[in-house]
Fold these 2 entries.
Entry 1:
Amino acid sequence: MPETPLANPKILYIDDDSLNRTLVKRVLSGYHFEVIEAATGLEGLTIARNDPPNLILMDINMPGLDGHETTTRMRTIPALERVPIIALTARAARGERELALAAGCDGYITKPIDIDDFPHKIISYLKGRRDTISSDERQLYLGHYSHKLVERLEAKVLELEEANSRLQKIDKVKSDFITVAAHELRTPLTLVYGYARLLQMVAQETGQAELVEGGVSDLAGRIYRSVQRLNEVVNDILNISLIEANEMRLQTEWVNLAEIINTALQELNPAKNGRQLNISVETLDTLPNIMGDKERLRQSFWNILSNAIKYTPDGGFISVKGWLTGSAPADAELPTSSCTADEEGIIILVKDSGMGIDRLEQKEIFKQFYVVGDTSYHSSSKTAFGGGGIGLGLPITRGIIAAHGGRVWVESEGRNLTTYPGSKFYVFLPLKSPPQQTM
Ligand code: ADP
């Protein structure tokens, strides 16, 4: 058995063909090589970057990044600059060896491998053997190689553009379907709504009005409330389609944010639903009125507050504070990011001591239908701990606040169901009137 310069040299073998990988691994393992496999150029790059091997065996013909491109990329990584990279390829045509060397390889072995000779070749490369080409040849092949790269880049850009336009079309089909489905649901909903009311009235007329559990009036009330909830979901879907299409109309008037936030809190009334939360609303009374759409702003704060209630366990706190940019009180918890860009306006902070939100999710939660965690646990309650909706509350809020020329964002150390780091939702609303009446 030939002697290797290192004990158990680590070889990274990058090849998309698993049969080739198995063969090479078996052959080299017999010589006490440790063989690590990668099925793509990108996978190989990650492995090599994290833990540089003693030698890299590189298949050339691979989908995605091919062997030449992977080698050239590896040569730009300082830790891999000096690691021998040996092309292992079935390409035996003239110029293939030169092309591989010009791309950055140190050696070239053709497939199928000669089982007896192969380990000796690998050992010679480990001992320092390097194949070379003349500088004229290198120049020539580098020219070929850069042409090939530009052609591949062009093909990839085209491919991406096509894929992007396909995705846009699919996204439009999805949005159209959602809007049509929501409109279609509205008609039967209105009917069920009406009949439930009628049933209640008939019960009243026939003397069954008192709320006996399981009585006609009680049952009609339950249908009525369920349809009301369904109606809210349908309205959310329609609202998001309006926001997407820039067609939501704002009905602006002078509004008082303290009033709006208190109304939303009264509607939610978590205590009535058995939740034990310490909720405080401070410093809102001193804020100036702004021009805005009262109903839409109520909806926005309702969404943020409902989330704060849902994701904060009993015994926790929720606080709502507000201040004018430029004259924040000394104890104001200013946002860490300068999302207000020094504009004159009002900042409302809704802070909770709930489960918090992972940093990576903090942008995502403002996207349509995005919910964190396992949706199968959702109870669809507006106030129960851990209850969830369909992931439209925050995107609607963002759309409404944006239509007022404002911004909404979240800051949180992360999500933790043991330490409850909490979340801070900031809403910035400018003092000047909304930029336009539609969005
Ligand atoms: P939904 O309408 O389903 O409640 P939202 O768009 O309001 O959806 O919220 C999206 C996701 O953001 C929720 O599923 C939740 O995981 C996360 N989230 C929102 N607010 C908070 C909060 N205060 N604390 C922790 N997670 C939150």
Note: Residues 303, 307-308, 311, 352, 354-355, 357, 365, 370-372, 388-394, 423 surround adenosine-5'-diphosphate (CB under 6 Å).
Entry 2:
Amino acid sequence: MKIPTELINYLKKASRVAVLTGAGISAESGLKTFRDSQDGHWAKYRPEDLATPEAFARDPKLVWDWYTMRRNKVAEASPNSGHFALVELERLIPHFTLITQNVDGYHRQAGSKNVLELHGNIQKVKCYDGCGVVEDWDEDDNIPRCPKCGAYLRPDVVWFGESLPLDALEKAHQATLESQAFLSIGTSGLVQPAASLAHTARQKGAIVAEINLDPTPLTPHVDFALHGKSGEILPQLVEEVWG
Ligand code: NAD
Ligand code: ZN
């Protein structure tokens, strides 16, 4: 892949960079996107019927088992060269913010520090009653109980119909407004409000680059569209800009 010289030269000078990642960056780890993951026993369910507060109220064990399956897949795989290239980027850029829609926790696991997880983390659980308890998810077939109030513990992810964590969202917005370069990586750009961040960056004068296997609805609006695997393009980018 030929990375445009203009992009390389721009990034060399940039001190404020914001990055948004989606399920695509974890595809090369072997984690499937939402829809592809519905195989075997789970094929008869739609994610929209499992990843909701209503679904958990109706049949907590069903939802718990589905997340256990997804969490096990995350635990069996690991971060890939795309995640590690972003760790490198954080080391090289003075003000670097990594905004992710992924729940796999791979950015932190790879070593990224300034990570904003907009959709939560599947490797954690929190109190269903909202008393504030958050814990690491221990291996458990049965739904664990909150040590403080006795309610069920549930996956610490944002479900359909729930609002995003306000603090992370505000920080993401701020980093986007201040960014000189904004990279949108492996996201279809359909899920709001993350989808609008790239447009916000552009309006404030940042250059916007997209790294994706395929064109997305964002593609016509970006300054640079790099089509290919993020696990190949990101290490190459790091090498060409800072190598
Ligand atoms: P998406 O599934 O809508 O889109 C994934 C994008 O990645 C697509 O545009 C695809 O072309 C691209 N892609 C696939 N393989 C790639 C590769 N190797 N390199 C670069 N790009 C590649 O994902 P989304 O935009 O993140 O939105 C889906 C929602 O599902 C999110 O809200 C997220 O929380 C959730 N989700 C998360 C995970 C995870 O944590 N790993 C997995 C599945 C779904
Ligand atoms: Zn509680």
Note: Residues 127, 129, 131, 133, 146, 148-149, 151 surround zinc ion (ligand 2) (CB under 6 Å).
